[in-house]
Amino acid sequence: MEDLDTIICRCEEITLREVLEAIRQGATDVDAVKRMTRAGMGLCQGKTCGRLVARILARETGQSVADVRPVTARHPVRPVPARVLASCPLPVISKETE
Ligand code: FES
């Protein structure tokens, strides 16, 4: 018997119960579970929980894990202050060609 309070997504503290509920409500891929629960929207962007969610989806929907569509990867974006960009040296462009 599995513990439904098991944390699946540590970043967003999403439990197995919440993932199963999302699947019961119609989620058929990792992105759908992500939208319905926030699992995968945390700091690691699903690197930790994405595979777990895919395995749960596969088990609950009777698919193989390879057939479960993976999460859409998003690169973390951080603002860069203009002063950092201004302090970067400009590239030297040579007029010489080979
Ligand atoms: S463990 Fe789910 S986003 Fe990090």
Folded structure, characterized:
The chain is mainly alpha-helical and 98 residues long. It has a domain at 7-74: BFD-like [2Fe-2S]-binding domain (Arc Repressor Mutant, subunit A). Helix content is 35%, strand content 5%. The chain is built from four helices and two strands; from the N terminus they run E-E-H-H-H-H. It has helices at 16-24, 30-37, 50-61, 82-86, and strands at 7-9, 14-15. It has a two-stranded antiparallel ribbon. The longest helix is centred in the middle third of the chain and has 12 residues, at 50-61. It is elongated, with a radius of gyration of 21 Å.
Summed over residues and divided by their number, the pLDDT gives a mean of: 90
Give a count of the beta strands, DSSP E runs of length 2 or more: 2
CATH topology of the domain at 7-74: Arc Repressor Mutant, subunit A
Q: Give the N-terminus to C-terminus distance in angstroms.
A: 70 Å
Overall 3D shape: elongated
Strand order of the largest sheet: 1-2
**How much β-strand is present in the residues?**
5-15%
**Secondary-structure element sequence?**
EEHHHH
CATH superfamily of the domain at 7-74: BFD-like [2Fe-2S]-binding domain
Provide the low-confidence segments as ranges. Answer: none
Class by alpha and beta content: mainly alpha
CATH class of the domain at 7-74: Mainly Alpha
